[in-house]
Design goal:
Length: 349
């Protein structure tokens, strides 16, 4: 396992709970954290650099939770060595990197899975069930958002450095809600993307949140707010809105609204809460009604890690080479290109 930050620690806990998994090596640059996690989770081999971890004999899989610019180099090296790969979101900074990763997984005949943990929430799973049962009819419009008042993740760290991260909240948070939306909508093709990005608070030193990572002292180089309008095959549309910092009500909120021919739905998650987040809008005997399904929290990272291990153990790997994650990266790339060009980008005619 590479990476000792929030994402790496969360995956480490999840892997450690599974009976078929032995975590044999851990890598990360924070020496003290490395030692303490090694002791806590009884991981025998500890390394600072990912290259040294990949040289360990007898590995079956590697889990990547590093800054985004290292996703491709580590995954390519691991797949080249014949290892299965679980990679944190986003797949990569660009379509070029992501395509190389997917092609490497195909060539190696190994698994490349990306961590989209929010689609594993209980409310999302319950809503997906309602959609698959036809309760909403044909969904023709969707709006997804992830908006923070004051949540730039580590001002001056890798998140705000374009070279290291590939972008701001659009690639960081937007990729989660894009995944959630496309998953719920049944994976429609995105035909066009029109986006705008803004950097209004970050460059002036405002909006720095509590999630602090090691600072590199670099400038704020990415957007702090992005909005994108996506046309979907079959005539539907999806609006995405995401921000690390903007003047709005306090908090860290994400969610989705769906509008269908037979019903609607809304998930609103406030500061990562797990209860009372889902509403279904319908008619009961001709009277507008609102249903509040009771949903569990879901397993998040734990679900993704378990699925990864199950796929690896199952031996049927060819359908799990990161293709869905690459589609998300294509949309994010197109959104940045659209914002830069100031016009719509066509993905599929
Ligand atoms: N799925 C989620 O909910 C979620 C949440 C947070 C972050 N993430 C993703 O996880 C990844 C990591 O994010 P984070 O917040 O944990 O970051 P972080 O900065 O807290 O941790 C990054 C880790 O990578 C390690 N690292 C950097 N260079 C290395 C090298 N050369 N060799 C070995 N280790 C190296 C660092 O030492 C550190 O331990 C990002 O891609 C991010 O988008 C996902």
């Amino acid at each position: 396992m590479v990476g000792l930050g929030y994402a790496g620690r969360t995956a480490l806990e999840a892997f450690s709970e599974l009976p078929d998994v032995e975590v044999v090596a851990l890598a990360g640059l924070e020496t003290e954290v490395l030692k303490s996690l090694g002791a806590k989770f009884q991981v025998p081999q500890l390394y600072e650099k990912w290259e040294d971890l990949l040289a360990v004999d007898g590995l079956d899989a590697v889990s990547i939770a590093t800054p985004t610019q290292l996703h491709a180099p580590i995954a390519l090296a691991a797949l080249d060595r014949g290892l299965h790969v679980l990679c944190e979101k986003p797949l990569a900074r660009t379509v070029a990197e992501g395509t190389a990763m997917v092609e490497a997984a195909k060539k190696a005949g190994k698994v490349l899975k990306v961590v989209f943990n929010h689609r594993e929430r209980g409310d999302v799973a319950a809503l997906k069930h309602q959609i698959d049962e036809g309760q909403l009819g044909r969904i023709y419009y969707a709006k997804a958002h992830w908006m923070r008042r004051n949540g730039i993740p580590g001002m001056g760290g890798w998140f705000t450095n374009r070279e290291l991260s590939g972008g701001g909240p659009l690639i960081d948070l937007g990729v989660h809600i894009l995944d959630m939306a496309l998953h719920l909508l049944g994976e429609p093709k995105v035909t066009t993307v029109s986006a705008s990005t803004f950097a209004e608070l970050g460059p002036r030193g405002r909006g720095s949140g509590p999630h602090v990572v090691n600072t590199l002292g670099s400038a704020f180089e990415v957007e702090d707010l992005a909005t994108a309008y996506l046309r979907l095959e079959g005539g539907g549309a999806l609006q995405l809105e995401t921000s690390w910092a903007t003047y709005r009500a306090p908090g860290d909120n994400f969610g989705i609204e769906l509008f269908g021919t037979e019903g609607g739905a809304k998930i609103e998650v406030v500061d990562y809460n797990n209860t009372d987040t889902l509403r279904i809008f319908t008619d009961v005997a001709g009277v507008p009604a609102e249903v509040k399904p009771a949903t569990g929290a879901g397993l998040g990272h734990r679900a993704v890690v378990s699925e990864f291990v199950a796929i690896v153990l199952n031996g049927d790997w060819s359908a799990h080479i990161g293709s869905e994650a690459l589609l998300r990266t294509q949309v994010i790339d197109a959104a940045y290109a659209s914002a830069q060009a100031g016009r719509e980008v066509v993905l599929h005619d």
